[in-house]
Amino acid sequence: MLKTEPDDDFSVSRDDFSVSQVFTSRSKPDDNLGVTILACRVTILACRVKLLTARVAQEISEAKRSTTAKLFITVKPVDANPPEISVSSPEGYANENSPIGEKVLDSDGNPLVITVTDKDFGPTDPKPSYVFELTTPFFIIDKNGHLLVNENNLDRDPPNPGRFKFQVVAREKSGAAASAPMSVTVHLNDVNDNAPMLPIVAPVAVPAGDVRRKVAAIKATDNDEGDNAIVTYSIYHVSNNGNNKFTINPITGLLETVGKLNAGDQYSLTVQATDKGGLYSQAIVEVTISPGPNTQSPIFEQSVYDIEVSEGATINSTVATITVRVGKYI
């Protein structure tokens, strides 16, 4: 007769497994003893992987001949816990107009990394594959968990939002288990991609004279922000040899006269607004010089006029023409 029993190094505790073995024996003409193993039922009580070395058959005889076999039992975990998702920082940053595939960074300049853990798996257990579902088409997560730009020409400048807040879910590829959603916010860093814009300036009339006078206040707008939106003003060109007759404040954009201007003169000024990146725009200011204010007393050409009038002159007839000069004007 044969029996089966665990070997001395059969390291299975009662807490790990419950084993039932059922055998029947029969005799053969050419063999004194034989055994047929009908069943070996193993009930898993713990989530482990065991290498079992068992003496599966032994003669009940003086010789006690036996044979052994190695049995591998891989215990698969029960999907009792959903995966859990975490991110190295909930706030990320990327430059506007970044190419597809550009990594989103945290405030320290490190790539934003999304990781998945699952309490169903131990440190040495093989992990399942996950797919990430995002509530935005503008970003994706690569196989290494890095958050990447997924859209060309992401624009921060108004009227675009400049900030994207979305949720991320991790789902097992081979199952339905999914993590709870996690919120991530990506801010777009400003890039100097907009030139300052100057408005259309209406024609201006400036009184003649040689004192400093305001012509116009030039104000540019720039859709960039911070240092990228700082604008300086300059005069690019003045017609009619008027370069030394006008000036503009480089910071405020106040355009003024500084030289003597004569009534009737006309000037066409090209003013320019330039940002720190060298981007610029220009506008034309048309200036006409009008007669200045009357600050001088009129002067008769003669101090005494001797006029003869005909005895038969009619009422309202011209007696004489008197000329009066005010400055250089008659």
UniProtKB/TrEMBL annotation:
<feature type="domain" description="Cadherin">
    <location>
        <begin position="96"/>
        <end position="198"/>
    </location>
</feature>
<dbReference type="InterPro" id="IPR020894">
    <property type="entry name" value="Cadherin_CS"/>
</dbReference>
<protein>
    <recommendedName>
        <fullName>Cadherin domain-containing protein</fullName>
    </recommendedName>
</protein>
<dbReference type="GO" id="GO:0005886">
    <property type="term" value="C:plasma membrane"/>
</dbReference>
<dbReference type="Pfam" id="PF00028">
    <property type="entry name" value="Cadherin"/>
</dbReference>
<dbReference type="GO" id="GO:0005509">
    <property type="term" value="F:calcium ion binding"/>
</dbReference>
<keyword id="KW-0677">Repeat</keyword>
<keyword id="KW-1133">Transmembrane helix</keyword>
<dbReference type="GO" id="GO:0007156">
    <property type="term" value="P:homophilic cell adhesion via plasma membrane adhesion molecules"/>
</dbReference>
<keyword id="KW-0106">Calcium</keyword>
<feature type="domain" description="Cadherin">
    <location>
        <begin position="215"/>
        <end position="300"/>
    </location>
</feature>
<dbReference type="InterPro" id="IPR015919">
    <property type="entry name" value="Cadherin-like_sf"/>
</dbReference>
<dbReference type="InterPro" id="IPR002126">
    <property type="entry name" value="Cadherin-like_dom"/>
</dbReference>
<keyword id="KW-0812">Transmembrane</keyword>
<keyword id="KW-0472">Membrane</keyword>
